[in-house]
Amino acid sequence: MRDPADIKAAFFAVLKTDAAGAAVRAQLVTYGSSAASIIEKEDVNKNSLPTPPLLVLAWGACGGGRTEVNRFLPTWWLYDAMERRWGRLTVLVPLIRAAYPKAALVSCEIDFLIDAGEQTDRALNMRAKNLPCTVLTR
Amino acid sequence: MPFVIDDKGLYTGLDRLLATIDEATDTGLERGADHLEAVAQATTAYVGMSGATRESTTAYVIGPGKDGSTEAAEGLAAAQAALAGFSGHQGQPLSQDSGVVLGSDQKGIILTSFTSYVDILEREDVADKAFLGPTLASEDTTVTQIVAEASREALR
Predict the structure, then answer these.
(1) Phi and psi dihedrals of B20, rounded to 5?
(2) Shortest Cα–Cα distance, B131 to chain A (Å)
(3) How confident is the model over A78-121, as pLDDT tens digits?
(4) Which phi-psi region, left, alpha or beta, contains residue B60 (left: φ > 0; alpha: ψ -120 to 50)?
């Protein structure tokens, strides 16, 4: 099996630096944000968040450990300022989905699940949407 | 000479097989629910203050003849007991419709907790204290194997 850390890094790089995520980054720029606002959950500092909208990757649990197929459950969390509501996040969702075709990562199969709709994260004081997906690998 | 098959026995056997698998699935799902509940209650994703979330965390089977209302009432009662007189935060016991609608021949497991703030744990601060979703995600293969093993036992 591919090293899980490699898979996580490759998954993150799709939006952060790869050509496949260029449309997402371009959209962030039109909103006054940038690739600097694409971060991993471990790097979230509530007192110093990047310019919104920001995209946060939570890698999540690993399932399927007792079978040959391992499954990772990353979630892209999308956040924007409270006063922006969810309009800009709604635009970003299909761009993120499009950046991850099923075979976007070598030896993996990616499927997006249903996104969880409009949320308000009071801990971060931001509007939020999330986009969970499964990454299967042998 | 015509070749005649009396298939009455065959159909009777198939019916028995299906009934056995159906019963075994119930057994397996009950065991799977117990497993999910134990894992979710043992989570370290959050600490907790009143104990209401942990004590009301419940997994139960739904399907034909099982609407989960008894288990939901027990879960809600556990949250009510833990929060009675507790003033450390504003959270309350809460029971809501799961929104899950199964077909007439479907069965499943609900894993939930009966507090008003479990939704906050699952979602806020980049899902930092989430435990229900991660438990389902990490244990679904195990639960599937538990159900399969129950079928295997019944068919031995």
Answers:
(1) -65, -45
(2) 10
(3) 999 999 999 999 999 999 999 999 888 888 899 988 877 899 99
(4) beta
Confidence grade of residue A1 (pLDDT, cut at 50, 70, 90) = low
pLDDT at A67 over 70: no
Taking contacts as CB-CB distances below 8 angstroms, the residues of chain A near B126 are 41, 44, 56, 58, 77, 121, 124
Best to test chain B binding among A45, A77, A114 (most B CBs inside 10 Å): A77
- How far apart are the CA of B8 and the nearest CA of chain A, in angstroms? 40
**Amino acid code (one letter) for B86:** F
List C-alpha distances in Å: A66 to A70, A71, A81, B153. Answer: 8, 11, 42, 20
A46 touches chain B (CB under 8 A): yes
Does the structure show a pLDDT above 60 at B92?
yes
